[in-house]
Design a protein that fits this description.
Helices cover 73% and strands 0% of the residues. The chain is an all-alpha fold.
Length: 98
């Protein structure tokens, strides 16, 4: 894992773990795709936890997230927390690919 990814992970993961379940609960009815976002995020967290200091293999999860979110395009009818989740996931994805 790159130093950049570790930094972004450290900056974003805690907030994502707080925001993702809330956004799923609040917006899941009108944006059912967010349940898929939550499932992929949960898979990423699980893999990161299992990997410890090693590099987790997350290409598949990030590819699915890009597809589900149309490359992290924020819907026009959502709150700032929803937007923040997409922005943080995009930043994490970009850092992982670097």
């Amino acid at each position: 894992m790159t130093k950049q990814f570790n930094q972004v992970k450290e900056n974003n993961l805690g907030r994502l773990e707080q925001y993702v379940p809330v956004v799923a609960r609040v917006h899941g009815g009108s944006h059912p795709e967010f349940h898929d976002v939550k499932r992929e995020f949960d898979a990423i967290v699980e893999k990161l936890n299992k990997a410890g200091a090693e590099k987790a293999e997350l290409n598949e999860e990030f590819a699915k997230l890009r597809k589900i979110t149309d490359n992290y395009t924020v819907p026009g009818d959502v709150c700032e927390s929803y937007e923040a989740v997409y922005n943080m996931l995009a930043e994490l994805d970009e850092a992982y690919q670097a």
